[in-house]
Amino acid sequence: MSPQIVVDSAEDANRLAHTSTLISPRFYTTDFAAMNRIDVSSVRKEWDQMMSEYEGDNNHDHFQRPPEFASEIHDMDPALKQEFLDFLVSSLTSEFSGQILYNEIRKQVDNPDIKQLMSFMARDESRHAGFINQSLRDYGLAVDLGNLKKTKAYTYFKPKYIFYATYLSEKIGYARYITIYRQLERNPDQRFHPIFKWFERWCNDEFRHGESFALIMRANPKLLSGLNVYWIRFFLVAVYATMYVRDHTRPELHIALGLDPAQYDYTVFRITTEITKQVFPISLDTDHPSFRAGLERLHLLSDRIAAAKKQGGVFGLLKQGVWATAAVATFARLYFFPVKHHALPQQIRMVPAW
């Protein structure tokens, strides 16, 4: 299944950025008063060390395009180009979503720790979004970020849901980017666009953002115990399943990078699982054949839902309902699949060693 919106103009790119589906990036808002009450005093030493790293800003000069950048942009096969543009717009929307959320929290809270953190993370995400938009601008397809901020729908998440989902998003973002970077480091002939050269230092920003949420959650251990473990389980399954389905909509992109979508995803899942042991008391058994079969069934059902939507009419609607029900049942089976339990390490912070 290829991307549903063909991007041939700036209007198409903006329409794609506005699209809200189960697998597209969303914009979020939250309970700012609750955010203001967050206490990180129990992890003060590691927190202050992290703030010092943010302030040092080792990527302050990274997101600059050298003169030769444009000369390394070459023509692509039309199918690959569409999937690459879909990847850029989706990545831009995700980075910009983080910028908006972090900046809004910064403006709404007085808590000095949270205010300082959100300022740094909004700064980083702004650079990321701007850098991607420059690459879209090379094709005449830049997204109007000001209009996107005003008009895209927002989803309300409680702070704890923000912590779980955003922590996972940042850590899985690191794992995705570093896996692609290492693949192209070994096979530079498959680097079909210069933006991939930036992925190593770029994903270290994502890693540090995840560390920030890890410290917040470890400073508030009730978020990691009791009934909240079921929420952690939900977000793990949801994030992994979303990634698996979304990546299979871009077969040409992965072929061009020399990656099999499924194997790439399982590599990313293994890296993410190792990282998330710093904060989550459970992890998914993504290498189990039955779990993998469930993800593959979700992918196939997503293709059938898309085909039924394209068919339209009464029969198309009926098919959508049947396949959507089957997808919900498959997700439920994945949710109740046995998980692995482990103790949390004494030292919270990790280094991006992959």
Account of the 3D structure:
The protein has 354 residues and is an all-alpha fold. It has one domain: Ribonucleotide Reductase, subunit A, CATH 1.10.620. The protein contains 13 helices and four strands. The protein has helices at residues 10-18, 32-36, 44-56, 78-108, 112-137, 145-151, 159-186, 199-219, 228-247, 251-257, 261-276, 289-311, 313-335, and strands at 27-29, 154-156, 282-283, 340-341. The protein has a two-stranded parallel sheet. The chain has a two-stranded antiparallel ribbon with strand order 3-4. It is globular. The two termini are 31 Å apart. The model has no long low-confidence stretch (mean pLDDT 93).
Report the total helices: 13
Largest sheet: 2 strands, parallel
Q: How much is the radius of gyration in Å? A: 20 Å
Principal-axes geometry comes out as: globular
| Main structural class | mainly alpha
The CATH class designation is Mainly Alpha
Helix share of residues? 55-70%
If you average the pLDDT, what whole number results?
93
Give the termini distance in whole angstroms.
Answer: 31 Å
The neighbouring-strand order within the major sheet is: 1-2
Q: What is the H/E string?
A: HEHHHHHEHHHHHEHHE
Quantity of strands, as a count: 4
CATH architecture field = Orthogonal Bundle
Q: How many discrete structural domains? A: 1
